[in-house]
Amino acid sequence: MQPQPGQANPALERSALIVATLASFIGPFMISSVNVALPAIQADLGMDAVQLSWIATAYLLAMAVVLVPAGKIADIHGRKRVFTTGLAVYTFGSGAAAFVDSAAVLIVTRVLQGVGAALFVTTSMAILTSIYPPSRRGRVLGIYVAAVYVGLSVGPFVGGMLTQYLGWRSIFLIMLPLGLFSLAMTFFFLKGEWLGEPGQKLDLGGCLLYAVAILALVYGASRLPATVGIALVLSGLALLVIFVRHQLAAPFPVFDMQLFAGNRTFAFSSLAALLNYSTTFAVTFLLSLYLQYIKGMPPQTAGTVLMAQPIMMALLSPLAGRISDKVEPRLIATAGMVTTVIGVALLTTLDSERSVMLIVANLVLLGIGFALFSSPNMSAIMGAVEKRHYGLAAGAVATMRLLGQMFSMAVATVVLALIIGHQAITPANYDLFLRSIHTVFTISATLCFCGVYFSWFRGTVHATDKSPQPPAR
C-alpha cells in the first residue's frame, strides 16, 4: 500500500532513515579510514607522492563534478533509482579497489567511488525530506548529520586497526557487506519512487559546463599557490559565470537560478554553509600538525585529541535538529555560527605553551558550534524549496560543503607556502609555522563572522509542503 499525502507511514519512514543514515556514514568513514592507510598503500603499490595525493583528489573531483547534475537527474527520473545506482557503483568501486595491482587502477576505482557517493549523498537527503513531514524534518536531518560525524570519528581508528592486522585492502572489502546490505534494504523495504520534475529534459550542455568549471576550481585549488593553480581557479570562476548565464537562458536548466535570485532563505542559507565549511575544514589538518610537531605527540595520540570535535558533533546534531523543528532554524544555526567564530578566534592565539586540556576544550566548543549550525541550516535549506526541487537542493548543499572544504584547504596551503615555503616543518621554523596557523585562523574567523550575517538575515523558514510526499506510482 502506498502512503497518501498527510498519511504517516512509520515503516517507510524507519526504512528510509536507516538506509539514508547508513549512506551518510559510509562516505566519511571511507575517506577518514583510507587517509590512515596511505603509507601502507604507497609501500604496497610503489606509488610516488603525486600518485598518492590522487587517491584523495580523484574521489573529490569525481564527487564534485556529479553532485548538482545528480540532484537534477534524481528529480527527473526518480530519487530512489539514482540512490540505488549510486550505492551499486560505490559498492562495485570499493570491491574493485580491494583487488587492484597498480596505482592507476586504484585511482580509477576511487573515481567510481566518488561518482557513486555523489549519487547517493544527494538523493539520500532528498528522499528523507520527501518522506518526513516538515514538523520532524530537523530531527531526522540531525540524525543524518550525526552519522557523518560518527563515520569521521571511527574511521581513523577502524582504518588503522584493519590496516595493521588485515592490510589496507580490508578497508575497501568491508564496504562490500555494508553496500550490499544498504541495497537490500532499499529494494525490499523502501517501497515506491519519488519524482520532482518528471518529463523534463536534462541540460547536457549545462552539465558539461558545470563539470569543467568545477574540475578547474577543485583541481586548481589543490595546486595553489602554483601559477597553474591560480590559472585553473580563475578559469573555473570564469566558466561558472558562463554557466550561470547559460542556465538563465536554458529551457530546462540543470540548476534553477531562481533558487538563488528569488529565494533569500535558500541563497543565504547556502552561503552560510559555504562560509562555515570554508572556516572549519582546515582546523583538523592544522591542529594535527600542531599537536605532532609543536606538542610532540605521536599520530595516535594526536588523533585521539582531535576526536573531541566530531564526537561533540555526533552527540549534539540530533538534538539541534530536533530543536529546530520547534524553534526557528535560523536562531539555532546562527547561535552555532557565533559559537564557531569564538572557537576559531581562540585558536588565533595558539602557542607552544597551550595545555592539551585547553585545546580539547577549544575543540569541544567548535564541535558544539558546528553541531548547532549544521542540521538546522540543512533543514532551513530543504524547507525553503518546493518538493520538485528537493534533489537539486540536496545537491547544492553537498556542493557548498565540498567547495567550502576545498577552499579551506586552499587557504591553509597558500598561507603555509607563503610563510614557510617549500621546506619541511622543523624546530628551526616552528615560529613560522605558528604564524601560519594564526594567519589561517584569523582568515577563517573573519569568514565565519561574515557567515553570521547570512545566517541571521536568511529570513523565516516557511515550509512549502505540509505533508510528506507520497511515492509516485
In short:
By secondary structure, the chain is mainly alpha-helical. It has helices spanning 10-45, 49-77, 79-97, 103-131, 137-166, 169-173, 175-189, 204-223, 227-249, 258-261, 264-294, 299-306, 308-326, 329-347, 356-383, 390-419, 430-456.
Molecular structure report:
With 473 residues, the protein is mostly helical. It has 3 domains: 1-196, Up-down Bundle (Growth Hormone, Chain: A); 203-253; 256-463, Growth Hormone, Chain: A (Up-down Bundle), CATH 1.20.1250.20. It has 17 helices and no strands. Helix 2 (49-77) packs antiparallel against helix 16 (390-419) and helix 3 packs antiparallel against helix 7 (175-189). It is globular. Mean pLDDT is 86; it is low at 1-6 and 462-468.
CATH class of the largest domain: Mainly Alpha
Given the structure, what is the number of helices? 17
**How many domains, in number, for the residues?**
3
Helix coverage percent? over 70%
How is the secondary structure organized here?
Blueprint: H1 10-45, H2 49-77, H3 79-97, H4 103-131, H5 137-166, H6 169-173, H7 175-189, H8 204-223, H9 227-249, H10 258-261, H11 264-294, H12 299-306, H13 308-326, H14 329-347, H15 356-383, H16 390-419, H17 430-456
Helix pairs in contact: 1-4, 1-5, 1-7, 2-3, 2-4, 2-8, 2-16, 3-4, 3-7, 4-16, 5-13, 5-15, 8-9, 8-16, 11-12, 11-15, 11-16, 11-17, 13-14, 13-15, 14-15, 14-17, 16-17
